[in-house]
Design brief:
By secondary structure, the protein is of the alpha/beta class. It folds into 2 domains: 173 residues, Aspartate Aminotransferase, domain 1 (Alpha-Beta Complex), CATH 3.90.1150; 252 residues, 3-Layer(aba) Sandwich (Aspartate Aminotransferase, domain 2). It contains 16 helices and 14 strands. The strands form 5 sheets. A 5-stranded mixed beta sheet has the order 2-8-7-6-5, with helices on both faces. A 3-stranded antiparallel beta sheet has the order 9-12-11. Strands 1-10 form a two-stranded parallel ribbon. It starts with 25 loop residues before the first helix and ends with a strand.
Length: 460
């Protein structure tokens, strides 16, 4: 009788420096979470043990990136690091023109102000918080065109980020192409659980938009992770490199916003990229108003150098295999403990289904916010809510009620070990065992915009 032997994989790097973590008692954590209004965003980082709040700007840079910091050209205009970054964007992503910004939302602000007019409609494959807000502030309205499976946490659809063309076509026929400045397409859709869009769907979208004269603007924050899933799941891509798949993805779009704090492995930075000279010319003017000169866009030269290096490193097949592999490891560990998660496992974190975890709580009792606070209280592990609090309110002031009520366990790149993942899963299992005793929350303070960052809660 023969058996199949699966070799273990290991991270394609070794540890050169460590940062000591702070261990706290339950009493200390209770005081900390109360002071934070039961909002994990308001915790002090020094009170956190394992920080899975976000993968934005929290990844570990390589020795090459740290060396790059020493090559920073901090000239106010014409920094050589800008031209290095521009070349990297053109070489690896294929976009013609580059506008650096302090981070992704700076790019979202500029592109929204340039392209959106009051009354416009922006279809997209599920909303993202800052993206939708910038679209709304510019006078537009977001319209969801993602496939229905994306709103179903137990669906095993391999490409939940796909566009539903029936939904898109209805919007185009209802409003007309002239009222649609662009279609907003995210790769590895965050709010769906880090779920990818397929290359076949992107090709079909490109053909559709060419027929109707509509742009595609790409939220490419996690494009390399999306490319990994195409490589692993889509027929015909198994032998292609991540870098080649990424470039093909970008070729089906007209421009992009990028938060380089994710895939590009830097602590700060982003950019707007476009293939259209007129859009570039206007963006080059506006960046001076909102960010900084067009050759630094709110960034130090050293940050642009680290970003250029990080872009190259992010497209390495071994890096992506280890990056997503760690996420999958945590997902499988949680499933072995019967913790309900979004399936299939996504690219940048595990999304626990708070509806199934805390079925006795209504959505108005903020189950995901409650669960994130309970996980911290149990273990010092910081996660974040992705449900009704993140969804916010519509133009009439009424709560959005998303179908997905999730807690995101976001894994920074190149930071934690598999042992940390074991601790995370085991701590969540302890909370699961006492879930019937957990009560919900009420919101006692709500800021005007993006309330999930600063809202405060009290236990019911």
């Amino acid at each position: 009788m023969s058996t199949t032997y699966h070799r273990s994989w290991a991270e394609p790097y070794k540890i050169k420096m460590v940062e000591l973590l702070k261990m706290t008692t339950r009493g200390q954590r209770l005081r900390a979470i109360k002071e934070a209004g039961f909002n994990t965003f308001l915790l002090k980082s020094e009170d956190v043990y394992i920080d899975l709040l976000t993968d934005s700007g929290t990844s570990a840079m390589s020795d090459r990136q740290w060396a790059g910091l020493m090559m920073g050209d901090e000239a106010y205009a014409g920094s050589r690091n800008f031209y290095r970054l521009e070349k990297a964007v053109q070489q690896y992503y294929g976009y013609k023109y580059l506008i650096p910004t302090h981070q992704g939302r700076g790019a979202e602000n500029i592109i929204s102000k340039i392209l959106i007019k009051p009354g416009d409609v922006i279809p997209g494959n599920m909303y993202f918080t800052t993206t939708r807000l910038h679209q709304e502030l510019a006078g537009g309205t977001f319209a969801d065109i993602i496939i229905d499976e994306a709103h179903d946490p137990v669906s095993e659809h391999p490409f939940k980020g796909n566009v539903d063309f029936d939904k898109l076509d209805r919007i185009v026929k209802q409003y007309g192409a002239s009222k649609i400045p662009y279609i907003s397409i995210a790769t590895n859709v965050n709010m769906a659980g880090g779920q990818p869009i397929s290359m076949a769907n992107l090709r079909e979208l490109r053909e559709y938009t060419h027929q109707h004269g509509i742009r595609v603007i790409h939220d490419m924050t996690r494009v390399a992770e999306n490319a990994y899933f195409i490589q692993q799941r889509e027929e015909g891509f198994k032998k292609r490199h991540i870098r080649d798949i990424v470039k093909e993805i970008c070729s089906y779009t007209d421009g992009a916003t990028m938060s380089a704090k994710k895939d590009a492995l830097v602590n700060i930075g982003g950019f707007l990229a476009t293939n259209e000279w007129d859009v570039f010319e206007e963006a080059r003017n506006m960046v001076v108003v909102y960010e900084g000169l067009h050759t630094y866009g709110g960034l130090a030269g050293r940050d642009m150098e680290a970003m250029a290096i990080g872009i190259e490193e992010s497209l390495d097949d071994n890096h992506m295999h280890a990056r997503v592999g760690q996420v999958e490891y945590l997902g499988h560990k949680m499933e072995s403990f019967d913790i309900p998660i979004v399936r299939p496992v996504g690219g940048h974190g595990i999304f626990v289904d708070a509806r199934r975890f805390l079925p006795h709580l209504t959505q108005d009792e903020f189950p995901a916010q409650t669960l994130a606070a309970e996980v911290y209280l149990e273990s010092g592990i910081r996660t974040m809510e992705r449900g009704i609090v993140s969804a916010g309110r519509n133009a009439d002031g009424e709560n959005y009620y998303p179908k997905l009520e999730l807690v995101r366990f976001t894994i920074p790149r190149r930071v934690y070990t598999q042992a940390h993942m074991d601790v995370v899963a085991e701590a969540t299992q302890v909370v699961l065992k006492r879930r019937n005793r957990i009560k919900g929350m009420k919101m006692v303070y709500e800021p005007k915009y993006l309330r999930f960052f600063q809202a405060r809660f009290e236990r019911l």
